[in-house]
Write a structure and sequence with these properties.
The chain has 530 residues and is an alpha+beta fold. The chain has helices spanning 2-26, 32-38, 41-55, 62-75, 86-97, 124-128, 151-158, 215-228, 246-254, 300-310, 362-366, 368-375, 421-428, 431-442, 452-458, 463-477, 487-502, 507-512, 517-527, and strands at residues 82-84, 99-102, 105-110, 113-119, 135-139, 142-143, 165-171, 179-184, 186-189, 193-198, 203-208, 233-237, 262-268, 273-277, 288-293, 315-318, 326-332, 338-347, 391-393, 399-401, 410-411. It has four domains: 33-76, no CATH class; 99-189, Roll (Pdz3 Domain), CATH 2.30.42; 193-414, 2-enoyl-CoA Hydratase, Chain A, domain 1; 421-523, no CATH class. The strands form five sheets. Strands 3, 4, 5, 6, 7 and 8 form a six-stranded antiparallel sheet that branches. The protein has a six-stranded mixed sheet with strand order 10-11-12-15-16-21, with helices on both faces. Strands 1, 13, 14, 17 and 18 form a five-stranded antiparallel sheet that branches. The termini are far apart.
Length: 530
Amino acid sequence: MALKKKYLPLIIGVAIAAGIYIGGKLNFSDTSDRLFTKNSKKDKLNRLIDFIDYEYIDDVNTDSIVDVTVNGILNNLDPHSVYIPKEDMERVADNMKGEFVGIGINFYTYKDTITVIRTIDGGPSEKAGIVGGDRIIMANGDSIFGKDLSNNDIIKKLKGPMNSLVDLKVYRRGEPKLLDFKVKRNHIPITSVDAAYKLTDKLGYIKINRFAESTYKEFKKELNKLQKVGITEVVIDLRNNPGGFLGVAEQIVDEFLEDDKLILFTKNKRGDIEKNFATKKGDFENGKVYVLIDENSASASEIVAGALQDNDKGIIVGRRSYGKGLVQREMDLGDGSAVRLTVSRYYTPTGRSIQRSYKNGNKDYFDEYFERIKSGELLDPEKIEVADSLKFTTPKGKVVYGGGGIIPDVFVPLDLSMQNETLTFLDRRGFISNFVFEELEKDRHAYDTISREEFIEHFQFDDDMVLQFQDYLNEKTKANITFVAYNKEVKQYIKATLADQIFGNGAFEEVINQSDIMIDEVIELSNSTN
């Protein structure tokens, strides 16, 4: 009897807890007062969804409500905590992994048909015999042409399990009937190094478009190639690079910094600090490095620029960078979706946070680019606002600032001729690419005798090509476009796009860089030092 009395409070407590739990699961007739006062914050959201599922007058897709709710919560945190719906996860994962399983073609939808721009070197389609200009009509018996198919639908038909076969029917101009190809799917790289080549006898160039899992290996491979042909200085082009994995940025910085130099440190909400130092593996510690940045260089790009600048290594060239100093971690939400949640801030070796303010909300934050245009800072470094309270000093006495991006050591203004809105619009909308493709289709063998080097260094279009492009645009857009003021720049874009479609592998960048004032500045800096 004494034993029962001893355990009576425990038994009653367990019974009450069980009753509350079961009642909470079964009772959907609670008043709103009880809902908001008797349940935790998590229960509140769960039960609201249950009420809508079971009681709301109309059928509602509660998955979409959950998505809106998650986005609403994250929008109240910071601009870089984001939700990734499950339908986007495969694409996002492939992009950050740096590869996917597919057939290995660059294509676009031309007149409702999948048209191969070029095959990826060494990829499954090239091995099978598919060439630029081929139209893929069917895949495994399914039609893949027509207005109703999106690029995502097409990609799903062409992607598949590793080593699986896909039967393709292809239309090739000049052939009397459709051609049949069996293509074995394989790993296809999503390259993050767009170009790597020599600018001068001693100066190499590497363009990185993002920091994915594969980026360091790609970068290291190209850096080794350039070192073997005698370069002692290198340009790392991080313009328009939105960032990616912090650890990959650290690996790249490690190539240039001496052992035990601080690369960065992070601090979480508990105040825990984690420092990251350079190791012994760097192979370019004695070489000179230039880093190109602009207003779209963010996150991991800023880690590279900040670490080198704060360690007095190399020269940062360009315009003030984006200003993202927050670190995210991807977390699985259990239904195929995920959230990238900000978990810490990072600081450059001198202790700078380069995260710009987001206190006025996400819209103002993402629209800050227009404020930079309005203020004139993209054309004049004197217009860049700095705060003395955020002044830091490097070991060699150079003054640097926190509070909103990396300010370059050497400022280069926005080139309004090569980066004007019309050319950017035409390039992004595919007008230049489509025009070049149609010109190439007239005679794909016209350039067979021209080497890559000869084309890039010496080939020139006459003014008639610009007039043809004008006619093409005016027919497609029903506008009245002329390029009197940008004749040279239009020819440069057309030549670069043609180089890309014929040669690939960074040919576009090699052509465009011939008229790049930031590249010219770096070459001048390199030539002025011995």
